[in-house]
Amino acid sequence: MDVLDLPFIRTRHDRAAHRRTEPDVIDRALADPTTRTLVLHRGRLAVVGAGTPRAALLPPSGLPEGLRLFLGEQDGAARLALVLPGDDDPGVPTGADGWAGLRDTAREQVAALAADDDVAVLAHGLAVEAVALAGWHGTHEHCGRCGSPTTVVQAGWARRCPVDGRESYPRTDPAVIMAVVDDDDRLLLGHAAAWAPGRFSTLAGFVEAGEALEDAVRREVAEEAGVTIGAGPGDVVYRGSQPWPFPASLMLGFRARAVSTEVRTDDDEVSEARWFTRAGLLAAVESGEVGLPGRASIARALIEEWYGAELPGSW
Ligand SMILES: [Zn+2]
């Protein structure tokens, strides 16, 4: 089967990685009036638009000082991120309407794709990159080997220790997320102990050190629901991915075939896991008994792929 047509994988800008090592790439971008900057503070983005906010793309003049990162180019013009320092509210930058998190702008992304709104799609792609990169800088200010303060190099794509020369790069933590389906074509969904009552989603978990993705799928389903996934090569099939920079995850989506159906949950993480038929899931969602994840999530895409159509409602 073809991979999913996911809303979060349609990038509309060029990361232009070859420019990161150009001398003064940031300074030259700042001198160019066609440059646009996304402004971040404590993981939130300066946005325009109420209700369905999108990341503001601001001209280079008049912005405060902060950590500047090179995100890439669009139509030959540079796109930067500006990370404002400090914990106190720095005030909304000129040209923006307020601050919002990536989960808020993701909702705009789904609407933008439906409306074929390229500007909004571009803003979201840049926003995901900016939030992921800014988050990494926020937690890697010191060398992992000697503890010295590190300096930013490669236009924000690496940090270097001035004492021992060690360089570190933005990291991404792979996580698997899977639609588990049994031989009666039922879907397994789980409810996490920490969630509001009635919330259900696909099972998911981080890939461990030295572990293949397929093995991570099998292990997580066994740990969280006590269900066995088939050992055959077609029993775990890749469906698509979604960057999830909270703080550094990459969600890798799979369809997995269950060869056992008895559910035994691990109370620490997943407190309930249930098999749903299509009619059963629709009825549970329509009655309000079950709430499904938001439309901007790969979890939702995996559920609706199995279902064969859009489902109503979301968290
Ligand atoms: Zn060092």
Automatic annotation (TrEMBL):
<dbReference type="InterPro" id="IPR020084">
    <property type="entry name" value="NUDIX_hydrolase_CS"/>
</dbReference>
<dbReference type="InterPro" id="IPR015376">
    <property type="entry name" value="Znr_NADH_PPase"/>
</dbReference>
<keyword id="KW-0520">NAD</keyword>
<dbReference type="GO" id="GO:0019677">
    <property type="term" value="P:NAD+ catabolic process"/>
</dbReference>
<dbReference type="InterPro" id="IPR049734">
    <property type="entry name" value="NudC-like_C"/>
</dbReference>
<dbReference type="GO" id="GO:0110153">
    <property type="term" value="F:RNA NAD-cap (NMN-forming) hydrolase activity"/>
</dbReference>
<dbReference type="Pfam" id="PF00293">
    <property type="entry name" value="NUDIX"/>
</dbReference>
<dbReference type="InterPro" id="IPR050241">
    <property type="entry name" value="NAD-cap_RNA_hydrolase_NudC"/>
</dbReference>
<feature type="domain" description="Nudix hydrolase">
    <location>
        <begin position="170"/>
        <end position="298"/>
    </location>
</feature>
<dbReference type="InterPro" id="IPR015797">
    <property type="entry name" value="NUDIX_hydrolase-like_dom_sf"/>
</dbReference>
<dbReference type="GO" id="GO:0035529">
    <property type="term" value="F:NADH pyrophosphatase activity"/>
</dbReference>
<keyword id="KW-0479">Metal-binding</keyword>
<dbReference type="GO" id="GO:0006742">
    <property type="term" value="P:NADP+ catabolic process"/>
</dbReference>
<dbReference type="Pfam" id="PF09297">
    <property type="entry name" value="Zn_ribbon_NUD"/>
</dbReference>
<protein>
    <recommendedName>
        <fullName>NAD(+) diphosphatase</fullName>
        <ecNumber>3.6.1.22</ecNumber>
    </recommendedName>
</protein>
<dbReference type="GO" id="GO:0046872">
    <property type="term" value="F:metal ion binding"/>
</dbReference>
<keyword id="KW-0378">Hydrolase</keyword>
<dbReference type="InterPro" id="IPR000086">
    <property type="entry name" value="NUDIX_hydrolase_dom"/>
</dbReference>
<comment type="similarity">
    <text>Belongs to the Nudix hydrolase family. NudC subfamily.</text>
</comment>
<dbReference type="GO" id="GO:0005829">
    <property type="term" value="C:cytosol"/>
</dbReference>
<keyword id="KW-0460">Magnesium</keyword>
